[in-house]
Each structure stands twice: as structure tokens, then as C-alpha cells.
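Q: Could you fold this chain for me?
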Amino acid sequence: MKDTAEGESARQPAGRSAMRAQPRSLTTQVVEFIEELCVGPDVEPGSQLPPEGELAARFGVSRVVLREAMKTLEARGLVQRRQGKPAVVASPNALPVEKFVAFAVLRDKRALMEFTEIRKALEVHGARLAAQRIAGPEEPQTRPHIARAREAIAEQRANPLDMPTRIRTDVAFHQALVAAAGNTSLTQMLDALERSLAESREESHRRYLATGADPARSATEHEELLDAVLTGDPAQAVAAMEYHLHITLQEIESRPEGDGAE
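A: Sure. Below is the predicted structure, expressed as C-alpha cells.
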């Protein structure tokens, strides 16, 4: 067995053998163990994990190692740590995506355009799904989300020059429309993108108001988009969302060199 293993090792590229030979750190091993606890078939979001002392003893590591592992798991969105209490299993979320997008946009302004294009693709699909649900047996489940979208439009129309109101109602409208699609994972992915691209959205509103255009036009555009979704025709909903976000992409492309998310 030894001779066979040595022969196999000799046939492997040196780089691959070196990677396989590298031992995993204790922290990495503990992270993997706790990940398995979090995704077990009987584990629900909000389930309480054993206390840190108990986990450290179970894995035979120090509390320092255990806490480093918990920090990693928290950053990945798998657990929620609480002061003085055991951590709990987090609900499914897109926190790792949000952090990745935010970091990418800060380092490379071209990424702002790329992630805005991704947002457009996801929202267009969300509009398609929302129109399908509105036209089908799930229509009653969409009503609260449509009501929220209408409230956001009305609030923006009532105070179109107030920047915080414009941004908050813009986000609320798009969140409500995506929620009407009934796809939780899609909602989480878009929420992550929205938070990472928040500064770009604010810049878009600033530049729009600076043009001297009717500030209430934004509310009208949202109303037209909502009406297209409410037809129950996925093609109309897709076309309306495509146009709506195409304008956003054009505005980002027109920004002076150096302008981005900041």
C-alpha cells in the first residue's frame, strides 16, 4: 500500500501534491463541523447552537479557535451571534453575496455597471413572475405587495424633492414588486444587491433632480411599471422593467470617469 501511494504521488504534478499535503487549520476544521450542524435535516432557522464552551470541548479546541470559527460562520451568514447567549442558526440569506458585491464595487468601478446589469436581469425576471402570479390562482398572495408598491408611489409623489424620501420609496417600490414574484431566493439576492448599490442609487437620484426634469416623473414611471405588471401579461411586464432599468444603466454609463458607487 505504501509503495502504491508513493508511486501515485510521484505521478502527480508537484503543485497538486503540495496542495494536498497542506494541513487544514483547526479553525477551518471547526468551521466545517459547525456548518454540518447548521445544515442538518432537522435544523430550523433560529435553532440554538450549544454554548461556546461546550462546542470547544466537543471539538477539542480552545475557546480562541472556537470564536474565530464562529466569526467566520457569522460572516458567511450561517449563524447569528448574541452577546452572552449561545449563537443561533441564521435564516437563509445572501449576506456573502452582499459583502462580495460591496467589496468588488469599491475596488473596481467597472463592477458597478456589471452588478447593475445583474440587478436588471433579476428584476426583469421578477416582473415576469409577478405578472404570472397576478394572472393566476396565487393572485390573492400578491395583493399586500401590490398595496405596498402603491403606497411607495403615493409617498414619492407627495414629496418628490426630498432626497431621503425618494430613495426610501424607490427601494420600497422595487422590493414590493419583487416580493410579489413569490420567489424568496430572488428577493434575498436582490436585497443584497440593493444594499451594495445603495450609493449608486442615491447618485442616480441626485443627477436626475439636477437635470431640472419634473421630480414627480419618477413616481409616474413607477406607476406605469406597476400597471404593466398588473396586466398579468409577462411580456408587457418584462418590456416595462427592461425600459425602466435601461434608463438607469444609461445614466451610470454617462457618469464622468471616476464616478461610481462613491
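A (continued): The first helix runs from residue 2 to 11.
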